[in-house]
Amino acid sequence: MNRRPALRTASVLGALSLVLMSGCSSDDTSSGGELKADEGPLSKILEPLWGSYEDVDWAAQEAEIENLVAQCMTDKGFEYIPAPASSTTVVTEDDMDEYGTEEWVAENGYGFSMNEEPEDLEGEEVEEEYVDPNAPYVESLSESAAAEYYEALNGPDIWSDMTEEEMEEYVYDWKEGGCYGAAQHEVNGETDAYSDEEHAEVTEAMDALYTEMSNDPRMTALNDEWAECMADAGYPEYATPDEAMEAAMNAHNALWEEASTGAVDEETGEFPEDFTGPSDEALAEAREMEIAIAVADFGCKEEVDWEQESLKVQFELEKQFVQDYKPQLDALVADAEAGSSE
Fold first, then answer.
1. How far apart are CA 213 and CA 223, in angstroms?
2. Count of alpha carbons within 13 angstroms of residue 123, beta-carbon side
3. How far is Cα 184 from Cα 172, in angstroms, rounded to an integer?
4. How far apart are the C-alpha atoms of 300 and 306, rounded to whole Å?
5. What is the pLDDT of residues 193-238, one digit of tens each?
6. How many domains does the chain have?
7. Is 134 inside a domain boundary?
8. Do residues 321 and 209 make contact, with C-beta atoms less than 8 angstroms apart?
9. 213 contacts 240 by C-beta, under 8 angstroms
10. Domain span holding position 263
11. Is 256 inside a domain boundary?
């Protein structure tokens, strides 16, 4: 069965890259050294906020959350069996060393089509289908009791009546997330510092920083050079690298949306067991398109030195941002560290 990959918009990836993937070897971007995307001015000051993924025991963290959920559900009058640890794949620094290289791009494009056809991935074990240990209990409940169960577990259903625009603007509040929201907040409380209203001024300014960078005249000129190269490669329709990535992403999204239309069971809200998603031929065509665009994108970025030139702009803006918001950034980091020590 083809599995639906998790796709994220290019704009979100771009915005996050300012915080998670920004950096250079020195705050002085005129030193002549190669800029690196993991030590920038903003990344340095926010490093305690994000921490190191390699330091996290994901299985233990997941088990702790499940046990807290079970206790919470019991307190609300329901039975709940903690779900077994999933086979979550953690991306390490070694994985990131390969990501985005010429060889990786030639094989995976932007990565949107990875794992869509697990039967074709030699040497990789296909995950076993997840079985909810609580399904028999929920099935034994009346329709109204089952609805109360899920509301206790995940919070009230706020999504059904939301427009797409409202979904995009929605800011998660763990207090609306039922037992899962409370458990995740207790275990991962430090991550909530970023979404705390107390720090809205600086976090909103960080979001705006990406827009400022995109509109910078130096980025406009750099993207014009890149677009000219892409036109020569047969892709005159893209003005920026984000547009090229979004085109590949949208092609995959369109396939899954088309295949999903009318496939969901109206009573259960789930896909039938025999749902396979888009055809292998359609997926292969989308994958071929994605890789072709990504390879051209990679080549044109190399030709105009897009990564280094864009990092120069980014780090200059970040350096000024840190100067302008140093007290607010320090307060954000302090709250995050306080949460992690609780």
1. 12
2. 0
3. 12
4. 8
5. 666 678 889 989 988 998 899 999 999 999 999 999 999 999 999 9
6. 1
7. no
8. yes
9. no
10. 10-56+90-126+190-341
11. yes
